[in-house]
Amino acid sequence: VIPLWPEGVPNAKADGGVERFEDGRVYNVQVPTLTFFPAPAGVASGAAVIICPGGGYVRLAIEKEGSELTRMLNRLGVSAFVLKYRLQEYGHPAPLQDVLRAVRLVRSQAKELGIREDRVGVMGSSAGGHLAATAATLYDAPEGRTGSPLDAVSGRPTFIALLYPVITMKDPFVHKGSRRALLGENPSAEGLDRLSMELQVTKDTPPAFLVHT
């Protein structure tokens, strides 16, 4: 388990309460981490994927949409990192800061971790897919930076995989629970645009693998 913010979590809440693990899900994340599952030496390809479990930015389905994927990726020679990111207790931009910090951290330690810095992807399911999409489109966003020296490392994923992702923040297709958790009950028009990922794609957005089920 690798702490994302050993120097201190940005805007940490002194009265944030206790993190809970119930029925394979994590609630009330206060200390974001990466859990590393290295690919076996005989098959390791040098590729790595940071996994963002779903849960509507209210909880993290850490077993179903986290640990189960690591085994599949490891069999393919891909090292995996499960990201435990901040949720509704913080709202935007905390999850964005966490996923970009994860990319920068993995990339900065690529040699020690036995991976290639040019093969660091992000995969997410449901709301975790939305977070992976924010990493792919807002990797240079000022709100994704915290003033850390690691901000100098590229946060752009090499590729992303979006599994039945939340994408838009706009009616009628928005997942309302995710929007509420990220932006509150009465989000601004600017906030809706900023976190509607279909509006943020450019020619520099990394390639995406999409799954809908």
Give the arrangement of secondary structure elements.
Blueprint: E1 2-3, E2 20-22, E3 25-27, E4 33-37, E5 48-52, E6 59-60, H1 63-75, E7 79-84, H2 94-108, H3 110-113, E8 120-125, H4 127-137, E9 160-163, H5 176-183, H6 189-194, E10 208-211
Parallel strand pairs: 5-7, 5-8, 8-9, 9-10
Antiparallel strand pairs: 1-4, 2-3, 3-6, 4-7
Please characterize this protein's 3D structure.
The protein is an alpha/beta fold. 27% of the residues lie in helices and 19% in strands. It is built from six helices and ten strands. Helix 2 packs across helix 4.
Short descriptors:
single chain; 213 residues; alpha/beta; seven-stranded mixed beta sheet; three-stranded antiparallel beta sheet; 6 helices; 27% helix
Q: Got a strand count?
A: 10
Low-confidence segments, ≥5 residues, pLDDT <50? none
Bin the helical content.
25-40%
Helix-strand makeup class: alpha/beta
Overall spatial form: globular
Mean model confidence by pLDDT: 96
Integer-rounded radius of gyration: 16 Å
Sheet having the most strands = 7 strands, mixed
